[in-house]
Amino acid sequence: MGEVKCPECGSKQLRLKDRRLRHPRHEDWGLRQTYLELETKKWHCKDCGRFFWQRFPGILARMRASEPFRQAVCQKHFDGISRSRLGRRERISPATIERWFGVWLRQKAGERISVQCPQILGIDEHFFTRKLGYATTFCDLRNHKIYDVVPGRSEASLESYLARLEGKDRVEMICMDLAAGYRALARKHFPQARIVADRFHVIRTVNHHFLGCWKEIDPVGAKNRGLLSLMRRHRQNLKPEQYERLSEYLRRYPALESIYRFKQRLCSLLLEKHHNQKKCHQLAARFLRYVADLKACQLHHLVTLGNTLDSWKDEIACMWRFTRNNGITEGFHTKMEVLQRQAYGFRNFNNYRLRVKVLCS
Ligand SMILES: [Zn+2]
């Protein structure tokens, strides 16, 4: 234990005033609960006149549990044992666990705090609660970490957060889905960063409009789940017999057939990656021709698609050159969903944010 010193002035000139037994809870021994028995003394410092109770390493002032025990409980709760269950097992109240856990999380989040913005940023939305709606995820795509989660997905709700973010000039590349709000924010707050469209979302948009168009041409066929699954797939993922079935159907609708061929060509163009600048120029020319075709046709679904692709053409062109995508962010979203379910939902966004920051980094 070493010598007792005055916490105020460090003097060893002390006078004993009182003694008492303390019984702090300590780490479990197997399934048995453990209590320490410590004799603590009250001292009076002759130099500065202060009275104090002797402290023990590993037990904070006025705490009835040792630090190792608190750590162990927090770790168990973090690993997925619910508060009520853990409380019954350890004979402490669920509210105590919640309080300890809050302190522990803040400590952990403080350890891995990164003030600077990531160099490669992924922005995406995810659902939080019915009351608060959506939240926006900022992901560090280089280091595979969640940088932050912010409530809301509109420009208005993110504006104040982005305005006080530090180190924004570090961001070199931003990956996002085809959301105009995010793009406007990115252009305003990260003017030097290159915006890259997320391939998965681009192809999903193409598919979405194409299926809408199909519903107009043949409302009955579009409800057939088997055909729907065949229509959605890329040509190279279809087995010969599946392709045969699809062609048989398409032969009955020549207009649809040509639209389908067009969609396949467009998707295979969008799937291109790892190209140099020269090749990208060629691809861009092809892409612009497709967009012009879409805009010139009479079907309103395809015209809408043409307009969307036209407004995102720069970001899509970046997609051929750089392979960054939001796959990592989507992966974290799955993890965050699990986290929400484990906690039986969050009401307080700050608690959620703290947990996400600790768990997803
Ligand atoms: Zn003193």
What is this structure, in a nutshell?
The chain has helices spanning 67-78, 83-90, 94-111, 155-163, 180-189, 199-217, 225-232, 240-251, 254-270, 277-296, 300-311, 313-321, 327-342, 349-359, and strands at 14-22, 25-29, 32-35, 38-45, 51-53, 120-129, 133-140, 145-151, 173-176, 194-197.
Bound molecules: zinc ion
Cα Rg: 30 Å
Which sequence of SSEs, written as H and E, runs from N to C? EEEEEHHHEEEHEHEHHHHHHHHH
Structural class: alpha+beta
Q: Which percent bin holds the helix content?
A: 40-55%
Number of domains: 3
Q: Beta-strand percentage?
A: 15-25%
List the total number of helices: 14
How does this structure look, described?
With 361 residues, the protein is α+β, with helices and mostly antiparallel strands. The protein folds into three domains: 1-63, no CATH class; 120-197 and 326-359, Nucleotidyltransferase, domain 5, CATH 3.30.420.10; 200-321, no CATH class. The chain has 14 helices and ten strands. The protein has helices at residues 67-78, 83-90, 94-111, 155-163, 180-189, 199-217, 225-232, 240-251, 254-270, 277-296, 300-311, 313-321, 327-342, 349-359, and strands at residues 14-22, 25-29, 32-35, 38-45, 51-53, 120-129, 133-140, 145-151, 173-176, 194-197. The strands form three sheets. A five-stranded mixed sheet has the order 8-7-6-9-10, sandwiched between helices. Strands 1-4-5 form a three-stranded antiparallel sheet, with no helix packed on it. Helix 5 (180-189) links the parallel strand 9 and strand 10. Helix 1 (67-78) crosses helix 3 (94-111), helix 4 (155-163) packs parallel to helix 5 (180-189) and helix 10 (277-296) packs antiparallel against helix 11. It is elongated and about 100 Å long. The structure holds zinc ion (ZN).
